Amino acid sequence: MRGQRVADCVRRPCGGWTVVVWLLLSLLGSLLLVGISGILQIDMTKISRRAISTNSTTTMTAMKTTHSQVRLVNGRNRCEGRVEVWHNGTWGTVCDDDWDMVDANVVCRQLDCGLAMAVGSISEYGQGSGPVLLDNVDCKGGETDLGQCGSLGWGIHNCYHYEDVSVTCKDTSVLESRGMGEPTTPSRRNSGLRDGTIRLVGGLDYCQGRVEVYYRGSWGTVCDDDWGMRDAGVVCQQIYCGHAISSTTNAYFGYGTGLILLDNVNCNGYENQLSKCYSLGWGIHNCGHHEDAGVICSGSGSTTVPPMNTETMGMGRGFFQTASTAVTDQTELVTEATTAVTPVAMTTRERPTIRVVNGNSSCQGRVEVFHNNQWGTVCDDDWDLPNAQVVCRHLGCGPAISAKVLAYFGYGSGPILLDNVDCRGSEGELSACFHLGWGQHNCGHHEDAGVICTPFQLVGPGNDFGMTERTPTTRPPSEGLARLVGGQHRCEGRVEMFSGAEWGTVCDDAWDMPDAQVVCRQLGCGEAATARVEAFFGPGSGTILLDNLKCSGSEASLQQCSHISWEVHNCDHSEDAGVTCSLS
């Protein structure tokens, strides 16, 4: 019976469904194994990616917390030179687009080099090599690291190495160790001073000078942004010096040191101290010490306001005296020139004098200047023939023959009072030329400057100084003459001035309607309609003569307005100033 049933299953399909079921189960099992394998691979990938992501995040965090390194290359010391930054394993340079004193101060602070004294470009310290790492750097002033400032990003630029930027810092610790400059840390006798205490520095007496304010143990300066007569009036009242005669700008009384403590001060006039006036807040500013504010109060020994333009100081009528005397403590020939001011209803001290020491005649020797009741020498950094020409004229000698460096006439003694003097040659005295400020230098007496002049010749009447020089009688016409270029008529255009036998432009930093008003009046073009900036009438060429002009609007010419030294600027011709006057 059983054999019959088996034979029947062989002849016809009996129980075929069992085979099908087994086949399906085998297929499902295979699919299940493939699925499990895939899931395991995905989980491993996620774990791996998560590990990589964690490591990457850790790396990025580390990059953000790492400070950028900066160095100055090819300078005379570690605090001057071409700016280079370290990034991604290499040193690279910084492009000079938008580079200014605010950016330079961040570099100097990062290097513990004090304050920025100058910024340069066009490879002043030589062209760098390798990548240009930063461009369009824009610091706000409070950064402690150049990498914290805004820029286009690492390695993004449109520059060449002839645009590498440089910085010159003033290492205040070095100056103070030499006994120069003013200490920024209080002495014991100053420890009782209250925040907001005021002093005036660099003037003829305690009622005129650069405004400095005391805050949390340090003296600091005030920036001249928005500085005016009401602010000056509060200062004069606070120090019991009467009322304000003049509010000075652009470091009229010399560059300060240390912190800039107040900016954009705006007093109503009735405040009993400057710190109660509106300002941006203690230590918040976008300034350099070339913008230090000052005042002249009615309690000052001089009742006549000196000219606001430091370039014209010493150009008034007066006389020179030359005399040969022997220095009591050393055998040196000394020739002094004292500029005495003709009395005009004022009581004032004699202006700083100049002398040449240790030469073979009264018209050659080591240059020494008198300031703050002491004689001091001049450092030979940037010392050249135009500087010597100013000295020779001041001494009443003929034209300069040679500008001597490296203590040609022997080492001086005492303080080094001037450094980086840069004259155009037409100034009336050496202190009217650009320099770093009284007592600010990085020199030794082995760098004392000297001059050799041609002997002077006395002549008869007709010369204000009673003597003449063997200089050419032809002069560049109309020094300070203004013109407008590129406009539709003679009373609008780019502002240009004539100085030193050439026409030059004016930078638009701080350029506004009072400045434009002075130009229009100077040209006989009526009232100013618009003050133009950013080369509105096209970029000029040649020298940029003036920057940071701050006119009150009542001056007869731009020369009488406050400004930083001639040909000192941080501009290019894309910033040439212009005006449109109402009368064509």
TrEMBL record:
The chain crosses the membrane at residues 20-40. Gene3D superfamilies: SRCR-like domain (3.10.250.10). One of its GO terms (molecular function) is serine-type endopeptidase activity. It comes from the Eukaryota. Signal peptide: none annotated. The keyword Chloroplast does not apply. One of its GO terms (cellular component) is plasma membrane. Keywords: Disulfide bond, Glycoprotein, Membrane, Repeat, Signal, Transmembrane, Transmembrane helix. InterPro entries: SRCR, SRCR-like_dom_sf. GO terms for biological process: zymogen activation. Disulfide bonds join 95-159, 108-169, 139-149, 223-287, 236-297, 267-277, 379-443, 392-453, 423-433, 507-571, 520-581, 551-561. Pfam families: SRCR (PF00530). PROSITE patterns: SRCR_1 (PS00420), SRCR_2 (PS50287). Residues 70-170, 198-298, 354-454, 482-582 form the SRCR domain. PANTHER family: SCAVENGER RECEPTOR CYSTEINE-RICH TYPE 1 PROTEIN M130-LIKE, SRCR DOMAIN-CONTAINING PROTEIN. This is SRCR domain-containing protein. It comes from Oncorhynchus tshawytscha.
